[in-house]
Every structure is written in C-alpha cells, then in structure tokens.
Design brief:
Keywords: DNA-binding, Sigma factor, Transcription, Transcription regulation
Shape: globular
Structural class: mainly alpha
Domain RNA polymerase sigma-70 region: 25-90
Number of domains: 3
Order of helices and strands: HHHHHHHHH
GO molecular function: DNA binding; sigma factor activity
Protein name: RNA polymerase sigma factor
Distance between the termini: 42 Å
Oligomer: single chain
CATH topology of the largest domain: Rna Polymerase Sigma Factor, Chain: A
InterPro entries: RNA_pol_sigma-70-like, RNA_pol_sigma-70_dom, RNA_pol_sigma70_ECF_CS, RNA_pol_sigma70_r2, RNA_pol_sigma70_r4_t2, RNA_pol_sigma_r2, RNA_pol_sigma_r3/r4-like, WH-like_DNA-bd_sf
CATH class of the largest domain: Mainly Alpha
Number of helices: 9
C-alpha cells in the first residue's frame, strides 16, 4: 500500500468522514468481489459489503496498525460471510438462481456459452466445498493472497491454510473431471 493510503487510513481513524468515504471508494469493489466469491449471490455480497463498512466505521479506531488495514478488512468480510452462511439455508437457492440465469442466455455465441458453462461447473464444484475450503481457495486463487495473509485473515495456522487449499483443489479436480 502507498503512503497516501496510510494517511487516509490514519485520518479515518481520527474520525474524518471524508477520509472514511475515500476508503470506501477505494475498497468497495474489493470487498464486494470477495463477498461475492464466497457467497455467490450479488445481493448478499452487497449486503455484506455494507455491513463490513459499517463495522469498519465503528471499529476503525481499534485497528492498531494502518499497514494491516487490507487484511483486517478482508478478515471482517470473511467473518461476515461465515456468519451469513451459518445463519442462512439459502446458499443452495442462491446458486440455483445464478445457474438458471446463466442458462437463460441461450442467444450467446457458442464460445461464450462454453465459457459460461465452465463458470457454472466451477461455481457448482465450489459449492460442494466446505465454507472454510471455499474461502481459502477464493483468497488464494482468485484474489491472490499469500498463505501468510490468508492465515491472518481466517485466523488459522499457515499449515491449516495449505492443507485446506490442497484438499479443496483436489476435490475441485475430482468434481470437474468426473
């Protein structure tokens, strides 16, 4: 992160609303994508993004180190997503709506249809993973976090992160090849 961002975070910690607004603008896409990758539902992801920024607004003063902001924010998003998954039985319904929407796009070119089908197959396979596996695979393979960063975000040892990723990738390979 750059020095300008650290200054914005520092000002937001001191209660400057304009600085907090700048943080929201900078991170809203990242937060939404992370939540969407875990929940696979744009409406749920939008709700999580709003909840995350609300939580950040009220707890930013507790952040000890501005340099840890991005991983702290990711941890908030992951935990909110976990809570949403635990509370809601709608996970499967959300996937089915997304899959059905993809099937309605029959007028697309064949290449686009094949690409969409691959996306659906991957999304369907991802839904077969445990939430813990889905989160670490998303953080590593979609968002590019390091093992150490993921361990910090989900608050488990690095070895556990590596094990979950290995197990998840193996399961995905089996699901997609069979």
């Amino acid at each position: 992160m750059d020095q300008e961002l650290f200054e914005i975070i520092r000002k937001a910690k001191q209660g400057e609303k304009e600085a907090f607004g700048q943080l929201m603008v900078r991170f809203k896409g990242t937060v939404f994508r992370q939540a969407y990758a875990i929940l696979n539902d744009p409406a749920e992801a939008e709700d999580i993004a709003q909840e995350a920024f609300l939580k950040v607004y009220y707890t930013l003063g507790k952040l000890g180190n501005e340099y840890a902001f991005a991983s702290w924010l990711s941890r908030i998003v992951v935990h909110l997503c976990y809570d949403r998954i635990k509370k809601s039985k709608k996970e499967k319904e959300a996937f089915n709506r997304w899959r059905d929407e993809g099937r309605r796009n029959d007028s697309c070119r064949q290449g686009a249809i094949e690409h969409k089908q691959l996306q659906l197959n991957i999304a369907e396979a991802m839904q077969e993973l445990s939430p813990e596996q889905r989160v670490v695979v998303t953080l590593r393979d979609v968002q590019g976090f390091t093992y150490d960063e993921i361990a910090d975000i989900v608050q488990v040892p690095v070895g556990t992160v590596k094990s979950r990723i290995h197990t998840a990738r193996k399961a995905l390979k089996n699901l997609l090849s069979g």
